[in-house]
Amino acid sequence: MLRATLSRSQVRLHAVQSLLVSGLSVIVAGERVTRLRRDAQVEIAGSGALGVASATLLALALSLALAGFGFFAVGSLDIRSRFLPHTSLGLSVAIVPVAFVLMIVRRDVVSQAVTFFSLENGVSLASLVVAAGIPMIIEVAFLFDPLVAMVVFDVLMRVHHHRTKSLSTESLTLLRG
């Protein structure tokens, strides 16, 4: 960046640098989740409240219904973004309820955290469509929210794993009042 005299070149170099840092963050997060799952010594692939086949069929049916609802309900609002395609808002409205369903159906902490971040992606996409011209400080605040949530989920997963030696949330049902 020292040799780049044009602002266009500096912006491109910064974009490449940011992309590399994002890629490294994904690698570190993947390694942490893998280590947590390995330490749990329990396979949680089929850890849903339903069987794997039933959950898959239910999720597929709900996804189609909710995606259809999202596209048709939002399509009549005529809210458009200057940069994103018209279907972006319908897609974001479909992502949010599907993520809620996945959070309810899954019983392990890792899957619930991943579906929470999927829900966050749907909300972020909706904000990009609806409020594309918002000030920079608010955009930074939107990006700060998933970072805080990621740290909180990391702490919660570690504490839960330390106490129960499992990543399953079934032991939390004892807390019902």
From TrEMBL:
Entry keyword annotation includes Transmembrane: yes
Which keywords does this Swiss-Prot/TrEMBL entry list?
Cell membrane, Membrane, Transmembrane, Transmembrane helix
This protein's membrane topology, according to the annotation, is: Multi-pass membrane protein
State which residue ranges cross the membrane. 12-30, 50-74, 86-105, 125-156
Entry's InterPro entries? HyfE-like
Where located? Cell membrane
One cellular component term (GO) for this entry is: plasma membrane
Name recorded for this polypeptide: Hydrogenase
Q: Which organism is it from?
A: Streptomyces albiflavescens
